Amino acid sequence: MSTDDFRIQQIDTSLHNEDLAPLSPDKRKWGWFEIFNVWSNDIQSLFGYTLAATLFISYGLSGWAVLAGIILAGFIVMFLVQLTGKPSVKYGIPFPVMARASMGVRGANFPAVVRGIVAIFWYGVQTYFASTAVALLINSLMDNPA
Fold first, then answer.
1. Domain residues for 134?
2. What is the pLDDT of residue 96?
3. Same domain membership, residue 82 and residue 38
4. What share of the chain is helix, strand, coil (3-state, %, to 5)?
5. Rounded mean pLDDT, 25-46
6. Is 38's pLDDT higher than 90?
7. Backbone phi, then psi, for 55, in 5-degree steps?
8. Residue 93 and residue 137: Cα distance in Å, rounded?
9. pLDDT per residue as tens digits for the range 82-116
10. In terms of CB atoms within 10 Å, which of 89, 100, 116, 134 comes out highest?
C-alpha cells in the first residue's frame, strides 16, 4: 500500500472551509481592550439596568448591595467568557471546531442550534425593552401619561 492511498482526494466543504480554519498567530489581534469590550458588552445592557432597578424596587436592597451584586456577576461572566474563549485565543480555532472536538461533527449542531435560540430570545428581550423605553420617551415628550 502506498502513501498516496491515504491522501485526501477532495476536501469536504462541510468539514473544512476558510471560516473553520485556524487563524495564524499574526492574525490574532485580541488584547486586553478587545476582551474588556466583550466583557462590558455582556454586562452593560438595558436588561441589566432593568434588573438592577428591580433589585432596588422589589427587594429593597441598598445601593451598595446592588453594586456588589453587579460586580460579582461581572466577575462570574468575565470568568466564563475567559474560560470558553481560551482555546480560541491559544490555538486560533473557532467555536464550531471546539464543539466538534468534544461532540463530533453531527453533535456540534446541537450547541449551534441552542446558541441560535438563545440569540433569538435575547434579541426579543432587548427589542421589548428598547421599544418600551422609546414609547416612554415619546409619551414624556408629548406630556402624555403612560
1. 106-146
2. 85
3. yes
4. 75, 0, 25
5. 78
6. no
7. -65, -40
8. 44
9. 887 788 888 888 888 888 888 998 999 998 899 99
10. 100
